[in-house]
Specification:
By secondary structure, the protein is of the alpha+beta class. The protein has one domain (9-97): Alpha-Beta Plaits. 31% of the residues lie in helices and 30% in strands. The protein contains four helices and four strands, in the order E-H-E-E-H-H-H-E. It has a four-stranded antiparallel beta sheet with strand order 2-3-1-4. The radius of gyration is 14 Å and the shape is globular. It comes from Paenibacillus lemnae. GO terms for molecular function: monooxygenase activity.
Length: 101
């Protein structure tokens, strides 16, 4: 398995706005080959730190997703959020190979 985490930090007063966006996400990634799961995590000690946690069957499936037209379209829309505090967020991305389960 392959895990990808995108960590973003937003002002605490914007955390619920971002949670709402992810709760209502397009879910197009869910239909991609090799996609297993999606979770949005909120740091219990730093409420403005949110982590998108995705699990894939293998790295190649994740790479196919991030190079797809659908991925590019979704991320272009993110740049056009009416809320400029959220539109300018740059995530820290971490990728992991699962070595024991």
């Amino acid at each position: 398995m392959y895990i990808v985490q995108s960590i973003v930090e937003v002002p605490e007063h914007k955390a619920e706005d971002l949670i709402h966006l992810y709760t209502n996400r397009s879910r197009s990634v869910d239909k991609q080959p090799g996609f297993i799961s999606f979770q949005l995590l909120q740091n219990e000690h730093k409420p403005g730190e949110l982590t998108v946690h995705m699990t894939w069957s293998e790295k190649e499936h994740y790479l196919a997703w991030v190079t797809s037209d659908d991925f590019k379209r979704i991320h272009e829309l993110e740049k056009k959020y009416p809320d400029q505090e959220l539109a300018g967020i740059k995530p820290t991305v971490r990728r992991y190979h699962v070595r024991a389960d």
